[in-house]
């Protein structure tokens, strides 16, 4: 019976995280990335089945925390716009929930991301004052393994 309680608790937590993530996404991300996660070519990139979504959770968190600037190629199309940093606006819990929602929606099937990953990423890049570029993101440790 204890195992069943743990499974139900984990399932309930995952559902709560997805609901919070959807709420965050619909408030902040939807205008650019759209309700379908398909983005607005050639202005805003899709979040559907991309290495940036399914790859390193730390890299995805860093992108949300510090933002992304300049040209970036996603699924063979180049986008040249700015994703503003969200580190001052969103808590670690909300960023983790948004990442979890995106990684589990729009045809994506990647694992949930706990707030601890975002917290550690925030601390690691606390002193960084600039947004990420495509070169930064492609040089991310493990980025090649995600392909």
Can you describe what's shown?
The protein has 147 residues and is mainly alpha-helical. It has six helices and two strands; from the N terminus they run αααββααα. The chain has a two-stranded antiparallel ribbon.
Give the secondary structure arrangement, pairings included.
Blueprint: H1 2-33, H2 51-54, H3 57-66, E1 68-74, E2 77-83, H4 92-103, H5 115-124, H6 134-138
Antiparallel strand pairs: 1-2
Helix pairs in contact: 1-4, 3-5, 4-5
Under the CATH scheme, the architecture is Orthogonal Bundle
Total E-strand runs: 2
Instruction: Give the low-pLDDT segments.
Output: 4-9
CATH topology: Cytochrome Bc1 Complex, Chain D, domain 2
Count of discrete structural domains: 1
Spatially, the strands of the biggest sheet line up as 1-2
What is the helix content?
Answer: 40-55%
Overall average residue pLDDT: 91
- How many helices in DSSP terms? 6
Q: How far is the N terminus from the C terminus?
A: 41 Å
- Spell out the CATH superfamily: Cytochrome c-like domain
- Tell me the β content: 5-15%
Structural class: mainly alpha
Features:
two-stranded antiparallel sheet, 6 helices, single chain, Cytochrome Bc1 Complex, Chain D, domain 2, 147 residues, mainly alpha
